[in-house]
Amino acid sequence: MAGILSRRSVLGLGLTATGVAVAGCSQGSGGGTSTDSISGDVVFWHPYGQESRQVQLQEAFAVFEEENPGANVQAEHVPFGDFPTRWPSAQQGGTLPDLLINIPENILPMHMAGLVDTDAMGSLVEDLGGDDFFVPGFLDKNGRYEGAAFALPHYAHNRLMLYRRDRLEAAGLDVPVTLEDVEACAEAMNSDPEYFGWTMPLSQSDIGAGYLLWQVVRANGGGLVTADGEQLWVSEQVQEATDYLAGVARRFGPEAATTTTIGDMFNRFHDGSSSMVVDTAANIAVANSTEGLDPDLVAALDGTHMPSGSSGPGHQVGAVSMTIPAGANIAAANALAKVLYRPEIHLDFLLSIPMFHFPATTNIDTDAFYADPLVTRYKDTVVAQTLAGIEEGSVAGFEDGPNPYIGAILDAKISEILVQDVAFGGMAVDAAIEKAAAASDEIVTRISSQIG
User: Fold this and answer.
1) SS3 for 321?
2) Pairing of strands 71-77, 40-46
3) What range does the domain containing 233 cover?
4) Is-annotated flag, keyword Nuclease (predicted)?
């Protein structure tokens, strides 16, 4: 076990969000021990802003507090986008929580800085039943780095190719399977300016193009950067994916895609202005619960796997996960995590917003999950496709396991600039990729110097 580290002693490490002096990537227990008492304030960060999610959390907290008299869960909403700057600030102030939930891409830099208690995380995995508690292979792909667990999934989802079934049928086309099929569908379902074939989220205020580029590259068996820091921007797969996305965006999408974010996919699909978008099953779930939408339009919304290339679909998993920071009250964190994973409590959370949350664990009552009316309605389409993608895919850039470089590369908006340069800026693919590769090299060099 690595040395004991209190919340305040980490101040001496001198870590920041963008420049970390690594204090041992397999950091062991923090200030707590397995015999810590479960009393007083138990600090918990989560990204769940919706009321229905928070109601389910409060019910879990009530169970935890009833079983641990004197304990009081202090929950704080920390959005995904705030987390990368929030944890360094909390580390400097000695106020890291006892348990937190975010995404592995955000948690990995914290782990690389030695601020995840991997001993406590390993013990939690064993207490839950080992790897068999999770979807096969899920931890190794999305939550383990160099053998140490740093993130355990609370729920998962998978990005899909969503389409208007009515427009597809009117065009006389089948559900798209390949990249070529999707391009043909985008052309057939494009009626500029009334509506577009495929609206992509290419805004540089988001990472939608980074996700799309990775998905298409993965469909052909490639990647953007390896976990060892080998950048792959000049590969044939990246060149082909760039040419493909830029061509479709330019010919069958709006130029307003340059300011369109992932969050805009709801409106673009629901207002009829886009025949296809890439999003999760949640997009269709929201349509079903939004008052005032045309019922015929809602009924026409459907989805399928991301398009296949030479290596199958580019499944991209979202893995909203929990971790125990260094310096936590381990006993409290362990007990609270296990309450959140209890089958009935976990199921209630998953169904708090049906088709937003899908299980990445094996302890869920599947009959009860499928009994939800909305899940039942889409059981054989977007629900089945999402669950298959969760089993077969990974977090973006984690195809060979957690990758310390991909988060910074995506956050740098290299992909957004690349696709925009080619689609709407008149730049040749080779020149745009050379520019992207140079930007990626700078990031890889910086991070490599930090992690040794």
Assistant:
1) strand
2) parallel
3) 160-314+412-451
4) no
Say what the pTM is: 0.90
Distance CA 384, CA 377 (A): 11
Token pair recorded at residue 49: 């802003």
CA pair distance 417, 94, nearest whole angstrom: 38
β-strand pairing of 144-145 with 99-102: unpaired
Residue 18 lies in a domain: no
Q: Are residues 230 and 309 in the same domain?
A: yes
Strand order in the sheet with 160-164: 276-279, 160-164, 301-304
What is the enclosing helix (H) or strand (E) of 376? helix 373-377
Say if residue 201 is in the same domain as residue 90.
Answer: no
C-alpha angle 91-94-99 in degrees, rounded to nearest 5: 75
What is the residue-wise DSSP string for 397-417? T-BTB--TTHHHHHHTTHHHH
Helices 429-451 & 236-252 angle (0-180, nearest 10): 130
**296 and 376 share a domain?**
no
Same domain, 80 and 120: yes
Q: Identify the domain boundary among 362, 392, 422.
A: 392
Helix (H, G, I), strand (E, B) or coil at 216: helix
Is 71 part of a structural domain of the chain?
yes
Q: What pLDDT score does 6 carry?
A: 31
| DSSP characters over 151-188 | -EEEEEEE-EEEEEHHHHHHTT-PPP-BHHHHHHHHHH
* Token duo for residue 94: 């000695």
What is the tally of structural domains in the chain? Answer: 2
For the segment 355-382, what is each residue's pLDDT rounded down to a tens digit? 999 999 999 999 999 999 999 999 999 9
Structural domain ending residue among the three candidates 359, 392, 425 = 392
User: Phi and psi for 188 in degrees, rounded to 5?
Assistant: -70, -30
Nearest to 319 by CA among 447, 149, 201: 149
Q: Select from 94, 65, 90, 92 the least CA-distant residue to 76.
A: 90
Q: Any alpha helices (H) in 220-365, and if so which ranges?
A: 236-252, 265-270, 282-289, 295-300, 330-341, 343-350
* CATH (domain of 172): 3.40.190.10
Note the pLDDT tens digit of each residue in 436-451.
999 999 999 999 998 8
The amino acid that residue 303 corresponds to is G
Same domain, yes or no: 322 and 309:
no
Task: Give me the residue label for tokens 């986008």.
Answer: 81
> Could you tell me what percentage of the chain is helix, strand and coil, using 3-state DSSP and rounding each to the nearest 5?
50, 15, 35
CB atoms within 10 A of CB 426: 7
Residue-averaged pLDDT of the chain = 92
